[in-house]
Amino acid sequence: SADLDEAAFAAWLDRYKAAWEGRDPAAAAALFTDEATYRETPYDAPFVGRAAIEAYWAKAVSGQRGVRFSYEVLASSGDRGICRWHATFAAEPAGDTIDLDGIFHCRFGGNGLVSMFEEWWHLKVTAAAA
C-alpha cells in the first residue's frame, strides 16, 4: 500500500493534464498499472488494462480540440487520492464548447501508477456560433 501525499497526487494529475491537453492516449495509458480498472461512469463496466484504457482515450480525444484541464486536490491518504477537476474543449466537427466538471477517485498501486480509477462528471454544452 502506497503512502500518497498531496504532492505525489498532484504530480500524477499534472501528467494526466499533459496527456489530455496533448490528446495523447499512450501517455494517458502509461499512468495506469497493467491491470488497472478505469470507470468513466459509476454504472458502466470499467475498462480493464492499459490497452483498453488507451483505446478508450483514443476514441474520447479524437473529437476534442484545444483541451484545457485544471484540478484541485481534495484529499490524499494511504493509497487513495480524490480531486475535483474541470476541462473545456471544442468538440469536432461542430465546434461546440464542452465544459466538464467532475471528481476523480484514484487508488494507487506500485511505482506511482493508478490501479483503480473512478470518475463522476457533469457536462455543459455551448453551441458554436452559427
Describe this structure as you would to a colleague.
By secondary structure, the protein is of the alpha+beta class. It is 25% helix and 48% strand. It contains three helices and six strands; from the N terminus they run H-H-E-E-H-E-E-E-E. A six-stranded mixed sheet has the order 2-1-6-5-4-3, with helices on one face. The longest helix is centred in the first third of the chain and has 16 residues, at 6-21. The model has no long low-confidence stretch (mean pLDDT 95).
Topology of this protein?
Elements: H1 6-21, H2 25-29, E1 32-39, E2 47-48, H3 50-61, E3 64-77, E4 80-91, E5 96-108, E6 114-126
Parallel strand pairs: 1-6
Antiparallel strand pairs: 1-2, 3-4, 4-5, 5-6
Relative helix content? 25-40%
Number of strands: 6
Unreliable spans are none
Range of strand content: over 45%
Helical run tally:
3
What distance separates the N and C termini? 53 Å
Going across the biggest sheet, name each strand in turn: 2-1-6-5-4-3
- What are the secondary-structure elements, in order, as H or E? HHEEHEEEE
Radius of gyration: 15 Å
Provide mean pLDDT, rounded: 95
Please tell me what the overall shape is.
globular
Q: How would a crystallographer describe the biggest sheet?
A: 6 strands, mixed
Overall SS class: alpha+beta
